Structures are given as C-alpha cells and as structure tokens.
Amino acid sequence: MTIAAAVTAPTTAPVHAAPRHAAPAVQPRAPPRRDPSPLNPNTPAQALRSASSAPPSSSAAAADGARAHIANLDKVLGKPPRPASHAAAAARQEQEQEQEQEPLSVRHGLLNALNLSFFVPMPGMRARTAADEHMSPRSLMHMQQLLSADSPRASPRSTIAPRWRSLHGEGGWAGLLDPLDSDLRRELLRYGDFVQAAYQAFHSLPTASARHRGLMLPDRSYRPTRSLFATSALSMPPWAKRPNTPEWLTQQSNWIGYVAVCESEREVARMGRRDIAIVLRGTATCLEWAENLRASLVPLDGESSDGADTGAEEPKVARGFLSLYKTAGEKVKSLSEEVMDEVRRLMEKYKGEELSITVVGHSLGAALALLVADEVATSIPDAPPVAVVSFGGPKVGNGAFVDRLSSSGKVNVLRIVNAGDVVTKVPGVAPRLPHKKEQYQHVGAELRIDSKNSPCLRPDAGPACRHDLEAYLHLIDGFTGTGRPFRHDARRSVIRLLQLQRGNVKKEYVNRARELGVDPAAPADVGRSMAYGNCAIASPS
Known about the structure:
Elements: H1 45-52, H2 60-76, H3 87-99, H4 109-113, H5 130-135, H6 140-146, H7 164-167, H8 182-204, E1 222-231, H9 247-250, E2 253-262, H10 265-271, E3 274-280, H11 286-292, E4 297-299, E5 316-318, H12 319-326, H13 335-349, E6 355-362, H14 364-379, E7 386-391, H15 399-407, E8 411-418, E9 445-449, H16 463-467, H17 469-478, H18 495-500, H19 507-515, H20 526-531
Helix pairs in contact: 8-17, 11-12, 12-14
Protein name: Fungal lipase-type domain-containing protein
Pfam families: Lipase_3
Keywords: Chloroplast, Hydrolase, Lipid degradation, Lipid metabolism, Plastid, Transit peptide
C-alpha cells in the first residue's frame, strides 16, 4: 500500500496593525489542518487521493520525517522501501489497482490473503464480495484461526461435578441435545478426539505389537492403561492375496483401541468422578470389512444351531460384530477378555472412589462399544454407570437386545448420526426372520446433525464425507440446535478436514487455505495432527 509522502503546512492569514488607542480586533483562529490518515477506516479513498495531490510543504525537515515514518510503515506491512522519484509511478499503479480485481495475495501477500480490506479500506485491496461472505465465516480472522494449528483459543472448561450424571446419560440426555448443551459438546468432542488418536496410532504403525504404539492422547489428563486387539474368525483365502498387499490388511488380529483412565486429580475434581474411557476405532482391514457383511443375527451367548427355535425374545446381535468381539488370536486375548480384565483391575485400584465408564467408538467401534457396555453391565454387579458415545454407528442387534440394554439400569447410549450417513442405516432387516423382534433396531438417544449446515462443506458431500469422523466432530462443534445456524464462534481447526475431505470442501475454503499457507492436497500428517491435538483441534473447543 502506497502512502502519500507530501505533507502540507497550514497557511496563516495576514494580521493588520490596529489603530492607535483602539482595541485590537480579535481574529478567529483557523482550525489546524489535519490530513486524512490512510490508517483510519472511515477515511474515504477520495480524501486520500486529494491529500496526496496537495502541494508539498516548505518544511523539508517535516517532509523528511514523514517519509521516514512512511518507510517504517512500509516495512511493517512487508513492502520494500521505494525512492521518492518513483512517487508518480506508484500513484498510477494505485489507480490501476483500484480499477481491476486481482486474485488475493498477488500484490499484498498475507495482508491481502487475510482480506484486511474488510476492516481497513486500503487502495489496491479488493473488498470482500457477498459471495465470499456467504461462503466463509463472518470474519476471515476467524477463518485464519480455524486454519491455524499454533494459536488456539479454546474456551475454558467449566466445572461439571454437580451435573456429571446428567451429562453422562442419566435421564437419557433429556433437554441437553436440542439445543446442544455447551458442556456436553465439549465432552463429546473430547471423546471424539480419543477415537481420532486411535485411528492415528493404528495407521502410523499398523503391524506393530508395542504396548501403546506411540499413542498420544489429546487430553493429557488421561493415561492409556491397556491396548486392545480384535481378531476375526475369518481368514483371507490364498487366491485373494496379492504380492504387494500390506500384511496388516489381511492379518486376523489387529490393534483396535485402548483403555485410558483420568489420572489428573484436578480434572477428577472438575468432572466430579474418575472416568474410565474405552476407545475403539472403526473398520480398517479387509477381514474387518468381511465381518461387517456377516449380518445374520445370532444369540449373545454363542451361535444357534440350524433349525433350532431359540425364541423370538432372545437377545441377538450381528454375527460379524460378535465374532470380532469374542474371538481370541494366536498371541492376544479376545477383545471381550481384555476389556473385562482391565475394567475389573481399574475398579479394584480405585475402589471407594466415584467412577464412571465411557465406551466410545466410530463406525465398527461404535457397534463393538454396545457389546462392551452390555457385558460390563451384566458381568460386573457393582459396575459404575456406563455411557456409550456412538459416532456413525450401525444397528447391532434385535429388539430384545435393545430391551436388555435399556432395562439394565446402568447403560445409557447416545448415538450421533449425520443425516445421509448410510452406515447408520445398516444392517436393515435380517433375511428370513419373520418375527418383528428379529429385526435390527437402534438403541439409545439420538443427536442428529447434518453436513448441509456446515459453512465449509459442500451440500452435496459424498457418503465418505458424511461418515468421516472428523466431519462428525466439525459438525458437532458448530451444532447449536435443529433449524439454527452453524455456531459462529466454533473454534475447531479445519486443517484435518481439508486434508481428508478436500473434494467435499467448498472451493472458496480450499483457496483461502492455500493463501494462508495450508496445502489442502498434502496428506494428513499424523505427527502434526498429534502435535496440534492439544492445540487447535483439541477438545473441548
């Protein structure tokens, strides 16, 4: 931005000598002339041009000081100093810039990328159009914050000790979902980030058998205590294997999550209890996908024999989910054994304290979370309250299984569903099952969100985006209530969303990200994701 260097001195009116023995006439003092400041947002561009065309002052010292001050401003604004001889060329360049609209960051770098003309009208910086405002947050400074991993502005966590039971599901979250309670939003985002940490830990070293695989939790008040493995009863046929297929895609036993416990006494006091989190990721391997397709209903205590009438009221679940939950591997226990052993150990360690168990999962992990909650409630008589947080979970069992969970008195289920997510609609009705109770049914309360309400996701986002966990967390962060606009002060970073769902993000956001130095085409960096896991995207937001 070129600032006029000429400074004009105010002219003074001549003073005539008064007659002798007469009182001198009082002349009104002319108001001091003040040149319009180019840094004043209320200064019109015409006033700036008229000031720049004014005749120069006779005071060389004042002009030199003004030029020095302007040169310093140019340095602050990131522009090289220009000699005074180029003033005329600079003025012509300003006029050309005002007439033509150029892409952002062509002449003004970061300042233009931030669109500071919205706050300070400057020559050569085009104003934000109505379309830009509609496609972006209310302020591009907010947009810069969402694309920044280094300057978090997380809202403080309030004390939830007096109401932790209602936030944990007592009463079925009545009155907390629509509109969404701010404390509940922070809790959901924290548990969602726990699942993201499980995805990142698995994909960073999918074949590793280390205890916690370099797991870094976004909430440092929790500590992982045990790794969890799920084993498929299926095996990959030899003809289906390819020479270049990674081993982890076809191996039977895979790391699927972890158990963590809150060890920060300060956080325990804030939450009103010590929380045990059981975190399970979604489908990642070929055999896990194959298990998802085994949708026939089988009893919880084992497989029924062909032709046997086990009764329509018997609780049954999908065969594939139960297989992954109950099957033991060659070197690892079954997921069921690992979870129950760890829960009992932690309950004994913290005996006498107020405890809670939160089982959280996405997709396949959400289905397995229901099986975990059911077994905890039925096999541990003195188990603490159990809450299940399901992100995009499918149907798991029949109506009798739903009644069993609901009547236990210990388990509360919250299903978070993105409209259009096909995974939440499957399995449908099991084949050749005439009884109504044999149909798959959902369990628990529902929090329904919609990708169409996001200001940065395209309304026609595809199925992969609608089921993506990061999209879920982005929508939860902005959800306020049905029919209400996206939360204007949502603070969750959209860097990971851009990297994972670039094709489903509005073009204006992708362009803004590039101008702010974020490459949406770059693959999601696990290390960087964990680095800003405690910053911009860390829950609570």
